[in-house]
Design brief:
Largest sheet: 8 strands, mixed
Number of domains: 1
CATH topology: Rossmann fold
Helix content: 25-40%
CATH architecture: 3-Layer(aba) Sandwich
Shape: globular
Structural class: alpha/beta
Radius of gyration: 17 Å
Order of helices and strands: EEEHEHHEHEEHEH
Number of helices: 6
Length: 253
C-alpha cells in the first residue's frame, strides 16, 4: 500500500436506481486497485461538502473505496436550504426506516458487483442520524464487516408509523464488530442509553468498543459546525482508523 500522503484518488458520482427513484452516490477511492469498501451515511443535512470531505479523508488515509449516498434526494418537502434543521427533520420523519435500510442494502449489493471493491470487506459508518442508520442497516444486513456509530440516537422520542422501533432494538442477533463514539453531554442521547446499547451489543458480539467523551457536545466531529470539539474529534478519528485497520487485517487473515 502506498503512503497515504501520496495516494492518488479517483472520484465519481452516480445514480442508483431504487424503486422508481434515483439515489445519488458520491464515491471516492484509490486509482486502479480493488479496495475494502465503506458506506458512509450522512447527518440529517444530507450529502454535503463536509460528507464528501470526510469520505476523501477515509480514502486518503486508509485506502478505502468510500460510497456516500444521498438518502434524502428528491424527497417531498425537502427545504431549499439543507441546513434547515427542522425542515430536514420533517423530511426524515416521513421516510420509513425500512425504506432507508433498503436503500443502503441496494447500495451494498451494487458495491458487491464492482471489480474495484473487495466485497467481503465492506463496513459502514454514520454520523448523528447516519450513526443510527448505520446501526440499523448493519444489524439488518448479513456480511457487513464492521460498524462505526458516531453519536447516533439510541432511542427515538416516540415510535411512529415510519419509525416503528428504536435503533437499539435492531441489535438482536446480527451484530458485527462495532465502534461507538458518543458525547457525555448530549441532550438527545443520555449516557444511560449509550450504556444500555453497549450491554445489548455485547450480548451478540465479542468485539464492541464504545467511548463516551464527557466534555464534548453532540456532533463533536463535524468541523464545519459550532459543536466541533477538536480534542474529541482527533481522538475519535485515531480510534476509528485503528479500528478499521484491525478489521481489514482480520478479514485479510
Amino acid at each position: 500500500m502506498s503512503d497515504s500522503n501520496e495516494r492518488s484518488l479517483q472520484e465519481e458520482e452516480f445514480l442508483l436506481r431504487r424503486n422508481g427513484r434515483e439515489l445519488p452516490v458520491f464515491a471516492v477511492g484509490p486509482n486502479d486497485v480493488a479496495s475494502a469498501g465503506l458506506i458512509l451515511i450522512h447527518e440529517i443535512f444530507g450529502l454535503n461538502e463536509h460528507i464528501r470531505d470526510v469520505s476523501r479523508r477515509f480514502a486518503k488515509t486508509l485506502g478505502l473505496r468510500v460510497f456516500a449516498p444521498d438518502l434524502f434526494a428528491d424527497r417531498p418537502g425537502l427545504p431549499a436550504d439543507k441546513n434547515d434543521l427542522d425542515g430536514m427533520r420533517a423530511v426524515w420523519s416521513k421516510i420509513p426506516d425500512s425504506e432507508l435500510i433498503g436503500d443502503l442494502q441496494a447500495l451494498y449489493q451494487e458495491m458487491s458487483k464492482r471489480d474495484d471493491v473487495l466485497s467481503e470487506t465492506v463496513g459502514t459508518i454514520g454520523y448523528c442520524m447516519g450513526g443510527a442508520m448505520a446501526l440499523m442497516f448493519a444489524c439488518s444486513t448479513p456480511h457487513i464487516a464492521f460498524l462505526i456509530d458516531y453519536y447516533g440516537r439510541v432511542r427515538y422520542p416516540e415510535i411512529t408509523e415510519t419509525k416503528t422501533k428504536h435503533p437499539i432494538d435492531y441489535a438482536c442477533g446480527n451484530v458485527c464488530p462495532t465502534l461507538g463514539l458518543f458525547s457525555g453531554i448530549d441532550s438527545l442521547i443520555p449516557v444511560s442509553d449509550v450504556e444500555q446499547l453497549e450491554d445489548r451489543l455485547k450480548q451478540y458480539s465479542p468485539d464492541v468498543q464504545l467511548k463516551i467523551y464527557p466534555d464534548a457536545p453532540h456532533a463533536f466531529f463535524n468541523d464545519t459546525r459550532d459543536h466541533y470539539n477538536e480534542a474529541a474529534a482527533k481522538d475519535a478519528w485515531e480510534r476509528t482508523v485503528e479500528f478499521i485497520n484491525r478489521q481489514i487485517s482480520v478479514k485479510n487473515g
